């Protein structure tokens, strides 16, 4: 298991370095391509709860995608860090302020409802063709998804990344949650998971 942790850390560092090398204008263009494809390809029913995220560091900016999904009837939520091991998802309201959550992130305050998403747009550091992902090392999403599964809920998991974050193979561990798809600037890869 230690070998997997070390291998993941190396792949994470390599792919984040590659993502950081993208010029800001290139990241914007690629983010807009992600939004355009996502709006065409993601299946959405009015009233569906969709968790997204606001970008930190060099992440893809999916705010245009989230705005488009909202205009089509989605209820949006963002991850909120409760403690060193737990995130929940709170409803995003245009008329309520976002509060600092740590790690340079902001999220809806305690006055916003906690929601269980049925479609999750998941940030990541690296991914492979089978839908395995490497997150940022905290395990927040894996634990949140496991919690939803224990409630009998099985959200669709769509990883959000740039093509430069793809690796040949992610050393998967039993607790890792596979993605149902990967959305990058070159399209949506649907996976049989």
TrEMBL record:
Q: What class of enzyme is it?
A: ligase
Q: What family is it from?
A: Belongs to the 5-formyltetrahydrofolate cyclo-ligase family.
Q: Where does ATP bind?
A: 8-12, 133-141
* Binding residues annotated for substrate, in chain numbering: 59
Q: Establish whether keyword Nucleotide-binding is in the entry.
A: yes
- What are the record keywords, sorted? ATP-binding, Ligase, Magnesium, Metal-binding, Nucleotide-binding
One GO MF term attached to the UniProt entry: metal ion binding
| Protein name listed in UniProt | 5-formyltetrahydrofolate cyclo-ligase
Its GO biological process annotations read:
folic acid-containing compound biosynthetic process; tetrahydrofolate interconversion
Q: Which Pfam families match?
A: 5-FTHF_cyc-lig (PF01812)
Q: Which cofactor does it need?
A: Mg(2+)
Keyword presence, Ligase: yes
> Which EC numbers characterise this protein's activity in its record?
6.3.3.2
